[in-house]
Amino acid sequence: MSEQTSTGYIKHHLQNLQVCSTQEGWQFNTTENPTLCKGNFNTINVDSMFFSLLLGFLFLWGFRRAAKKATTGVPGRFQAFVELIIDFVDTNVKDTFHGKNRMIAPLGLTIFVWVYMMNLMDLIPVDWIPTLAHAIGVPFLKVVPSTDINVTFAMSLSIFVLILFYSIKIKGITGFTKELTLNPFNHWAAIPINLILEGAALLAKPISLALRLFGNMYAGELIYILIAMMGLYQLPLHFGWSVLHLLVTFLQAFIFMMLTVVYLSLAHEDH
Amino acid sequence: METVIGFTAIAVALLIGLGALGVGIGMGLLGGKFLESAARQPELAPMLQVKMFIVVGLLDAVAMIGVGIALFFTFANPFTEQLAALAS
Q1: Would you state the pLDDT for residue A1?
Q2: Which helix (DSSP H) or strand (DSSP E) does residue A27 occupy?
Q3: How many domains is chain B built from?
Q4: Helix axes A191-228, B45-75, angle to 10 degrees
């Protein structure tokens, strides 16, 4: 990397590698024109997609391998590790979710492990992978997918669809409408007020879910980048922040999972 | 230009300070109540601990997002650029 100002360094680190459809076909953004895709709807953040899918498949492959190889005898180290995670998720889901649905626990496990793996990418030193990528001609690279608001919103909107689906499936269209229109004040004259209150509460779920994870990881990543500009003093600071951030990454993944389970359990409550 | 920088510095101080103040009070109340209830009903402590950590995560987000935005303003101030764009 060439000589840069601190602002340029931060901006460079926070820029996604993007590809978008322009008048000259699909084009990547370059060092000369980093904001080529700004405001273009047909944009794909290549680095976020690559790393999130890579981690997703790593999770599926690893856990499937552990399940295939599982023995009732003395378990291997990896099997014990996987069992630990599954037990942890299973107890938490059983404590919170009381309906009948076989999909909730696997969903919780997937969300927890996937989000945690994406958050853990933050612990890789901020310059390693981008510098390597720079050497083979990739101008920008954001390594942590959960610092991309598109990724967190994609996950929370998928959960929102599930909430709507199960609300309608369990309570029926009429039941769901009744819940939205007659909930705080059970009177026909209060329907508009109820609709506004319940609608806001419903819409706040995916938005807060996505923004909480994004905000935490973005702030954490930014602090890593700022520490990385400090010369040799960065080493103890990096250690200190990593210790704190290790707790934050775990807590955010855990909260994302728990809130998903809580929201879906609310959707399963039949009055 | 100088006014913008000065105001940004004040904004940063408010972002970090007020965020830390609120979250500090909240965390203090939360931890205190948790210890109180764990002392009253020690058998409930593991269940309460899980719930406490959920709330800790919810609280923690507020302060950390504030710090992140504040540091972004400090080191890559977007307002001075807006000002430069307006001037040109």
Answers
A1: 45
A2: strand A25-28
A3: 1
A4: 70
Q: How far is B54 from chain A (nearest CA, A)?
A: 6
B22 is an active site residue: no
Cα gap A196→A203, rounded to integer Å: 10
Range of the domain at B21: 2-83
In a domain, B33, yes or no: yes
Tokens of residue B26, six digits: 């909240």
Q: Is the pLDDT of residue B20 over 80?
A: yes
DSSP for A27-45 reads: EE--SS-TTTTTT-SSEEE
Give this complex's ipTM.
0.71
Instruction: Check A6 against B69: CB less than 8 A apart.
Output: no
Q: Could you read off the pLDDT of B25-58 as tens digits, one per residue?
A: 999 999 999 999 999 999 999 889 888 888 888 8
The residue extents of the domains of chain A are 46-267
B50-62 pLDDT per residue, tens: 888 888 888 888 8
Residues contacting A211, CB < 8 A, separation 6+: A149, A152
* Residues lower than pLDDT 70 in chain A: 1-4, 271
Measure CB to CB from residue A223 to each of B54, B61, B68 and give the nearest one: B68
Residues of A involved in catalysis: 208, 212, 216
SS3 A53: helix
pLDDT at A2: 45
Query: A219 to chain B, minimum CA–CA distance in Å?
Result: 4
Residues contacting A206, CB < 8 A, separation 6+: A153, A156, A157, A159, A160
C-alpha atoms less than 13 angstroms from C-alpha of A118 in its C-beta half-sphere: 34
What is the pLDDT at residue A271?
A: 61
At A54, list the tokens: 């890579």
- Kindly determine whether residue A215 and residue B60, on different chains, have CB atoms separated by under 8 Å: no
Check B60, B62, B67, B69 and give the catalytic one. Answer: B60
Give a yes or no: residue B12 inside a domain: yes
